[in-house]
Amino acid sequence: MNNLLYLVAVILIIAWATGFFAYHTGGLIHILLVIAIIAILLRVIGGRNPL
Asked: Which domain holds residue 35?
């Protein structure tokens, strides 16, 4: 389950970067970025290595 959370965070960051630099789709991509950051912060707060 821990690896799944990390995988989702990485995928969301990649999706945000792709959307931001290639398509400029607006609010949806930024929401995905916020979700990815929250997932990484939950890993850090939980005492796990974020990378």
From this structure: 2-45
What are the residue ranges of helices labelled H in 1-51? 2-18, 27-45
Distance CA 8, CA 17 (A): 14
Task: Please check whether residue 51 lies inside any domain of the structure.
Answer: no
Q: Could you tell me which residues come within 8 angstroms of residue 48 by beta carbon, excluding any fewer than 6 positions away?
A: 2
pLDDT in tens, 1-51: 567 888 888 888 888 777 766 666 566 777 778 888 888 888 888 875 555
29 within domain boundaries: yes
Give the integer Cα–Cα distance in Å for 14 and 11.
5
- Backbone torsions φ then ψ of 24, nearest 5 degrees: 50, 55
